Amino acid sequence: MASSNIIEAKNLKIQFQGKIALSSLSFSIKKGEKVALIGPSGAGKTTLLNTLATIIKPDEGELWIDQLSFKEMQNRKMLAKKLGMIRQQFDLVDQLPVIHNVLAGKLSDWSLFKSLLSLIYPQEKILAMNALERVGLGDKWSEKTSNLSGGEQQRVALARLLVQKPEIILADEPVASLDPARAEDVLAILTKLVHEEKQTLITSLHSVEYAKKYFTRIIALRDGMIYFDLPAHEVSAKDLASLYVLKEKV
Ligand SMILES: Nc1ncnc2c1ncn2[C@@H]1O[C@H](COP(=O)(O)OP(=O)(O)OP(=O)(O)O)[C@@H](O)[C@H]1O
């Protein structure tokens, strides 16, 4: 594996009840790339992200994350250092103040005692406050998380990632539940932070417009296969039209 490749996948195959979701996918991703996964519904974007997150074990093929095999990635502490995940549904604990959700990014580093103590006296508060400042929520640290808007909650999830500091961020439709203005705001912050932290980002997106604007590379999936894999600026209207064309019924 070339040392500049942080992810390398060879012939990944995943099936669910005999139905192929990913069909012999091979690709590599370099450190610092910002990759958007696009493609029609059911193309395999979420399955691929969950495989990269080592949540789904491939039926066939091999996967290396920063030189580590799928098996070596099962160590929880190691996994948290390498990979951070952000989803459409934020994965926050609504009833807790914002700062506790941000500090959840540290849980894999902390002992059980420190984690429990932090629920009463937030530990490493300055770290969390700095992260909240960077996502523009410095004044919201003590608010109950459920009182925040959807866009603000997704920014809390970004602050949690800043505290976790993984090398790779996997994002599954991170802005699907937000209105267009908030969606763009969250994507702009996410890609700016990833750039500043020199992280690698892989995001599934339904918006081709945002994929072209905020990402360096676009991998298009269709029927569990790579349909095209191009620098974002080279993706043409014709490529997109044929990717999303509805299949004729036979
Ligand atoms: N847990 C599962 N059990 C059975 N089939 C599944 C499961 N997860 C995904 N699939 C199937 O695998 C295929 C790929 O699904 P996946 O969710 O990865 O697509 P997607 O590109 O993320 O779609 P969307 O854009 O609608 O989220 C689909 O045919 C889906 O029905």
TrEMBL record:
<dbReference type="GO" id="GO:0016887">
    <property type="term" value="F:ATP hydrolysis activity"/>
</dbReference>
<keyword id="KW-0547">Nucleotide-binding</keyword>
<keyword id="KW-0067">ATP-binding</keyword>
<dbReference type="InterPro" id="IPR017871">
    <property type="entry name" value="ABC_transporter-like_CS"/>
</dbReference>
<keyword id="KW-1003">Cell membrane</keyword>
<keyword id="KW-0813">Transport</keyword>
<protein>
    <submittedName>
        <fullName>Phosphonates import ATP-binding protein PhnC 1</fullName>
    </submittedName>
</protein>
<dbReference type="InterPro" id="IPR003593">
    <property type="entry name" value="AAA+_ATPase"/>
</dbReference>
<dbReference type="InterPro" id="IPR003439">
    <property type="entry name" value="ABC_transporter-like_ATP-bd"/>
</dbReference>
<dbReference type="InterPro" id="IPR050086">
    <property type="entry name" value="MetN_ABC_transporter-like"/>
</dbReference>
<keyword id="KW-0472">Membrane</keyword>
<dbReference type="Pfam" id="PF00005">
    <property type="entry name" value="ABC_tran"/>
</dbReference>
<keyword id="KW-1278">Translocase</keyword>
<feature type="domain" description="ABC transporter">
    <location>
        <begin position="7"/>
        <end position="248"/>
    </location>
</feature>
<dbReference type="InterPro" id="IPR027417">
    <property type="entry name" value="P-loop_NTPase"/>
</dbReference>
<dbReference type="GO" id="GO:0005524">
    <property type="term" value="F:ATP binding"/>
</dbReference>
